[in-house]
Amino acid sequence: MAEELDGAAVYRALADRAEGERREILLGLADAEERHARHWADKLEELGADRPRIAAHRVGGRARLLAWVARRLGIGAVIPLIERGEASEINRYDAEPAAPAHMVVDERVHARVVAGLFPSWRTRTSGGLRAGVFGVNDGLVSNLALVMGMAGGQASNEIIVLAGLAGLLGGALSMGAGEFISVTSQRELFAGEIALDAAHLEALTGQSNELALMLRAKGTPEHEAEAAAAELLRDPEVAARVLAREKLGFDPSALGSPWGAAASNFAAFSVGATIPLLPFVIGSGTAALLAAIVAAAVALFSVGAAISLLTNRPMLRAGVRQLAVGAVAATFTYGLGGVAGAALG
After folding, report:
1. Do 114 and 148 fall within a single domain?
2. Are 194 and 290 within one domain?
3. What's the DSSP call for residue 314?
4. What pLDDT is recorded for position 119?
5. Total of domains in the chain
6. Were both Cys, which of 167, 185, 240, 277 would link to 198 (CB 3.0–4.6 Å)?
7. Structure confidence by residue, pLDDT tens digits, 143-183
8. CA quadruple 111, 117, 120, 122: dihedral sign
9. Which CB contacts under 8 angstroms, 24+ apart, belong to 295-302?
10. Contact status, residue 3 vs residue 88, Cβ threshold 8 Å
């Protein structure tokens, strides 16, 4: 019952930021989740238990976080995550004998409804959030390991700060450059495929059949695919873009600007790398080391919790797992730094 009420709370938060038909759809999804919750409350009462007070339900941490993100960043920031969650719960009631048939159908429909709300840009948003989270994680873990290794080797505070800054800048520049090359290469690949298909369209007469087959493979009915292919072939440039997109499996508009992707990856890595370094910038000695450990631990758990939004896994488990990974990396490099420092000393 708690999951249904959490879902209703998230949908109502999304509805607050939506307008028109989308708002009505989101409110309808919230009403459906609340009906499911009332069904389980009725079942508990039939079994002799005290009827849960739905109005007194305390919304869970994941639902509160999704609602907060929706209010601050807009619906597009959370729709891909909610869609993924609905898809994972599509069979939630299949093996539950107390669940009526309409609830089973509801769960199967919800994922499709959410997916249809923002079909044009939900993938781009999910990719941006994923890149941001993992960019912060890369900067955090790599610079934490570097700083702890220097601290283990009994390096002076100035050396630790210098090494941390070098690790921050080097890693951030590498991330930014890599993302720039990646996005640029994908755009060039798409442009090359467009040019090739445009040449084929000019030279071949049977290309409409290929285009129609591709559209049919994507689920378009045969007669609609043939009509769409004929319409597209009236404009060879548009048809070439459609062919390229279907062959390569991505749309360059979803990639964003190469410079924008590079800047966002540079910024995300820098944010993560700054966390374990900052205590040594404003302090020194054991106090700075302890502060760096605490700050990094909090950040690692937070990153793990954020990753759980992408994977739809329990937030606590994801946070603890990420904390454990960072702890292993930091402990290993601290010990290795100690050994190297003793050997070089």
Report:
1. no
2. no
3. -
4. 54
5. 3
6. 240
7. 999 999 999 888 899 999 999 999 999 999 998 898 888 87
8. negative
9. 296/140, 296/144, 296/326, 296/330, 297/323, 297/326, 297/327, 299/136, 299/140, 299/272, 299/275, 300/140, 300/141, 300/325, 300/326, 300/327
10. no
- Of the residues 254, 281, 296, the one at which a domain ends: 254
Domain boundary among 77, 98, 119: 119
Q: In this structure, are 107 and 23 located in the same domain?
A: yes
> What does the alpha-carbon distance between residue 245 and residue 189 come to, in Å, rounded to a whole number?
11
The token pair at 137 is: 């994680």
Please answer whether residues 180 and 258 qualify as being in contact, where contact means their C-beta atoms are separated by less than 8 angstroms.
yes
pTM: 0.57
* Co-location of 10 and 80 in the same domain: yes
- Using CA atoms, how far apart are residues 129 and 306, in angstroms rounded to an integer? 9
Helix intervals (H) in the chain: 2-17, 20-46, 61-73, 79-88, 101-117, 122-152, 157-203, 207-217, 222-232, 236-248, 258-282, 285-311, 315-344
The domain in which residue 240 lies consists of: 188-254
Q: Which amino acid is at 335?
A: G
pLDDT digits (tens, 9 = 90+) for 40-74: 777 777 777 777 677 677 788 778 887 787 777 67
pLDDT surpasses 90 at 296 = yes
Q: In the numeric block, which tokens belong to residue 94?
A: 């299949």
